[in-house]
Every structure is written in structure tokens, then in C-alpha cells.
UniProtKB/TrEMBL annotation:
Source organism (scientific name): Sinosporangium album
Family: Belongs to the acetyltransferase Eis family.
N-acetyltransferase domain location: 3-161
GO BP terms in the entry: aminoglycoside antibiotic catabolic process
Protein name per the record: Predicted acetyltransferase
Gene3D superfamilies, per database record: 3.40.630.30, SCP2 sterol-binding domain
Amino acid sequence: MSYPIRPMTESDWDAFCGIWEEAFSSQMAPENIERFRKLIELDRTLAAFDGDRMVGCTAIFSFEMTVPGGVRPVAGVTAVGVLPSHRRRGVLSALMKSQLTDLYERGEPVAALYASESSIYGRFGYGLAAEGRGVTIDSHHAAFGRHVLTDPALRLRVADPAEARPLLEKVFDKVRVTRPGMYGRSPGRWDDVLADEESAQRGMGPLRCVVVEDDTAPRGYALFRVKLSFDDHVIADSDLWLLDLFATDPAAYAATWRAVLDRDLVARVKAHSRPADDPIQHLLADQRRLKAVNMEDLWIRTADVRRALAARAYAAPVDVVIEVEDSVCPWNAGRWRLSADTSGAVCEPTVDPADVTLPVAALGEVYLGGRSLSPWKAIGAADEATTGALRALSTAMSWDVKPWAGLIF
């Protein structure tokens, strides 16, 4: 059965919200719906219909995202859902294929998403490109080592989050270009980050902010909530939930962490997600006081292999013919010669024999530089016709700073 797909209009908004709530078994507070509406780009939101009823949807946020070597346009895929009554009918597949075709025709080579279910998106050529770490630190045993940098010019200021917003934006915009996966925050996105209604607090208390600065500029900040608790009603046993912590230099980074670790009445500092290579562990004198759990972060899809591979930087020279397997986007399937070094890259179609053969999801997985191609060879999903070619490609696509977006969209 065919389900026509078209861009959503303003009159479809209520039906769109209904699908979102059904698909995720949730209910959005009115203030959340209002903020969500400000973020959604109607012309980039596709809806599938059964007659006049919307039964599925998917949307895109237009981002500027850091990739190895610079900031590039990336399509942030979000709000993917199908009504329970229309599962297993090909609605999701049709939406995903329509969306990728639209990206290709627009000249947008890369898509990114956070996956609600990790089993879904590999079918459509996405690869898990970035991981984070859920972190818990025992704040009573969180002394720093002797090697930690300090700067006497720095001072700490407790600030109202909304009033400090221009300072937070300044720090964030300076930091985000240094890590693949981080994306620019629009005014609407900042509204969401700084939201502080009861629905946003989720029982963890009001949003709080500290700013680390000198006489010339802000150099770090933290946004957090404290869930106040007392063991046996006597001993403070509170959790500080860290939402955002960024700093522009090592001394400011250490000072910002010190500000949250030294918070009165707090027994533990927790973060749902921090970068996999977050330096905080190296600041602690006793690294065992940090407990970490690996977390999924971004999934990446190369919607246009030629443009995507030419748009990023490479850590080492490489000249390799890649045969790409892509059943969803047939324009990607075939052989591509990637010639790259640290000054630039060219990717063009070729009839030369392949050095390596890869599923397109493997290219998405390594695109931000944080993962290796070797597991794909180990499971037999990647083939190497030229000895050493897979390792050379993997090395060239690696990046020193681990990718991480850190904010679900």
C-alpha cells in the first residue's frame, strides 16, 4: 500500500505532535510544544498520509556542525515516528528514503541523528560515529593532582542563567569549533537549554549557573541542577546534575570543574553525557573516584559520498579506491577514488579496481574521526583487496579529538 509523502504545513502541526507523543509514548507540556514549534522547519519536515490522516513523520534541523577540519552544513534528523497502527507497512522506509533523496538533491552530503532505538538506523546506512560517557564523581574525594594549571586572574561568579546567556554563548561558540560533532545553537536551541519550568526541572531543582571569567572575557561556565537530599535527614547526600560545562582554556576548564565539585551539600556530581576523552579524569588525583558508563552519541549518514569525503580534513595522506555498498541511496553505490592529504581531498568516481569494499554505514561511523574501520573487517563486512589499504584509510580518517555533540536534538 502506498502512503503519499509531502512536506508538512502549519495546519498539520497538531497531527504531527500527536504522532510524536504516540511514537514515544510521552506527553509534551504546553511550554515544550511551543519551544519545539520554534525549532521545527516546516519545509524540511516530511509527513506520510493514509488518506487524509498523518501516520508518520520525520524532520530536519539545519545545523552548522564541526567535522574534522572545519564547520560544515549538516542535516540533523529528528522527530522520526510512525503511528503504532501503521508499523511494519514500509512507512518509515519510505520517509527515510525520501529524506535522503531530498538531502542529495539539495547538495547536503551528511546527516546526523540521535537514535531512540539503535537497531533502526543501520538499515538506512547510518553508522554510530560518536560516543559519550555518563559520569559520576564522588565530590568528597575529588581533589586535583599537582599538575593542574591555575590562573590567578580567574574568578568565579554565580549567575542567573538567563541573564548570563550572552556570556555562555560566547564561550560555547569558541569551544564548539574544536570538537567534531558539536553543532551551533540557534536562539531557539538556547531557549531550550535554558528552560526552567517545572517540566524542565524534572524534580531536580532550578537551573543554576556559574561563570569563570577574568577582567576581559568569560572563559568557562557550567549549567546544573541540584537534587537536594539528606541521608537519615542528617547528612547531606545530594546529587548535582551537570548539564553543560565548557571552557576555552585548561586553567578555566579546571576552575569550572572545581566550582561544581566544591558545591556545598553535594555528595556526587553526575553528567548524563560527557566526551569520551573528557580531560576531567586526568585532573583528579584519584582517578578511581570517577565512574563512567559508555553512551551512544551521534549517528552519521553520508547522503552523498563524493561530497562528504571531499568536505572533511584528513590526518594522513591516502590514495585509495573505495567500493561503496549502498542499497538505500543508489547514487552512492560504486567505486570512488579518494585522494587526500593534510591540505585537502578529492573524491571522484572511478572504474579502477577497488582497494577496499565497505558498506556505507562504515563510512558514516568513521566520518567524524572517532572510530576505526577494523571491526568491519573483523566481522567480514569490509573487504580489503590491497593489503594495508583499510588501515591507511582508517588512519587518514582518524582525528585526535573524539567526536561528541552532547545535546540531543
